[in-house]
Write a structure and sequence with these properties.
The protein has 371 residues and is an alpha/beta fold. It has eleven helices and twelve strands. It has a ten-stranded mixed beta sheet, with helices on one face. Strands 5-6 form a two-stranded antiparallel sheet. The chain binds S-adenosyl-L-homocysteine and iron/sulfur cluster (SF4).
Length: 371
């Protein structure tokens, strides 16, 4: 795992100033630097995030002079939609080409009364969980705030302003290894002047980066999902290599701290990817229940979604049900994730984008490290 070493933010290019990734405070600071009144920040945020307009020349309630100043200082390239796939159930997967090379995927999942957008935070992922296609790609770099916001901007441009009611950081990458970009995005998503989503409609999923969980708790109030996947350190060290840095005891203590600052209705969702013969026995289910006792938890069981070369199998439906009923019988709230979009490889853990070849892991050594 390479998370001790900072990842580059951009590859071989000057960072560009785009309104897309700037939270309200950043837009105010820009206006101040340009000698302009900061109250225009709310108008600008409304244009970008409510009306989907990035071209400052089209922001007609700003004076011509202000538009001209802004236009001189902004360069706002958007990723290019390289491919769009739609599954039979309406799930859409977008492949977005980034400046400087590489591409990330995001997935829109329509449901009866909501639309969830699953977004990526890194190009690849350094955590390298052996059951995850993104991890098998290695990592190239951090996404910038504007590249993360672009996933939402482009989806809304394609599907309509009201299409996205929920945002989950469950695409490519470990969001808590990229807080520098993720925090402004969270502020934009929950700022009434920008997207104005309620904090319960924005979920960060993490493999358990403990210090960043504490930072998140103090700087943003959003829903948290923790990728558990194993009831003991020996197995979790292999399945979620982040565990070697922050073992279960530290992780669960961080979960308790996270909930301590929240209202009594909030909970943490623990994700558990079920791998046949590896972590799916009734005894392991009992151990999970013991581990989570005393924590306001929901468990989301995700039967393994296969990808080419993966050294794991999905358990039988009977094994999945048995695992869930042990947890349920011990008073835990359990949901099992329905397969969505797996025929277009858009389900959890199947996102690969395109990470340039030199960043890829050697598949052989990767498979050998799996259980
Ligand atoms: N990096 C973050 C968020 C992205 S992954 C994290 O790991 O939490 C979103 C969820 O999909 C995680 O719980 C992850 O463990 C799970 N996942 C990854 N690969 C999977 C696969 N092949 N099948 C099922 N779930 C998978
Ligand atoms: Fe990274 Fe999450 Fe995949 Fe693990 S499961 S490799 S942390 S994206």
């Amino acid at each position: 795992m390479e998370h001790d070493r900072p990842l580059p933010d951009e590859v071989g290019q000057e960072p560009v100033l785009s309104l897309l990734g700037m939270d309200q405070q950043a837009v105010r600071a820009l206006l101040q630097d340009l000698g302009q009144p900061t109250y225009h920040a709310r108008q600008i945020l409304a244009w970008v995030h409510r009306r989907g307009v990035l071209d400052v020349e089209a922001m007609t309630d700003l004076s011509r002079a202000l538009r001209a100043v802004l236009a001189r200082h902004l360069a706002q390239p958007l990723p290019i939609v390289l491919r769009q796939q739609v599954s039979a159930c309406g799930t859409r997967k977008y492949l977005l080409g980034l400046q400087g090379g590489g591409a990330v995927e995001c997935v829109f999942i329509p449901q009866i009364s909501r639309g969830t957008l699953c977004i990526s935070s890194q190009l690849g992922c350094p955590v390298a969980c052996p059951f995850c296609a993104t991890g098998a790609q290695g990592v190239r770099r951090q996404l910038t705030a504007q590249e993360i916001m672009a996933q939402i901007f482009l989806t809304r441009a394609a599907l309509g302003a009201d299409a996205v009611s929920h945002v989950v950081f469950m695409g490519m990458g470990e969001p808590l290894l990229n807080l520098k970009a993720v925090l402004p995005v969270l502020r934009l998503l929950t700022d009434q002047a920008a997207y104005g989503l309620s904090k319960r409609r924005v979920t960060i999923s993490t493999s358990g980066v403990v210090p960043a969980m504490d930072q998140l708790a103090s700087e943003a109030d959003v829903a948290l999902a923790v990728s558990l996947h194993a009831p003991d350190d020996a197995l979790r060290d292999v399945l979620v290599p982040m565990n070697r840095h922050y073992p279960l005891e530290m992780l669960l203590a961080a979960c308790r701290r996270y909930l301590a600052g929240k209202d009594h209705k909030s909970h943490i969702t623990f994700e558990y990817c079920l791998l046949a013969g590896v972590n799916d026995s009734p005894a392991q289910a009992k151990a999970v229940a013991r581990l989570l006792s005393g924590i306001r938890a929901k468990i989301n069981l995700i039967p393994f979604n296969p990808f080419p070369g993966a050294p794991f199998e999905r358990p039988s439906d009977a094994a999945i049900d048995a695992f869930g009923s042990v947890l349920h019988g011990r008073g835990l709230r359990v949901t099992t994730r329905r397969k969505r979009g797996d025929e277009i490889a858009a389900a959890c853990g199947q996102l690969v984008g395109t990470v340039p070849a030199r960043a890829r892991r050697d598949k052989q050594s990767h498979a050998a490290s799996a259980v």
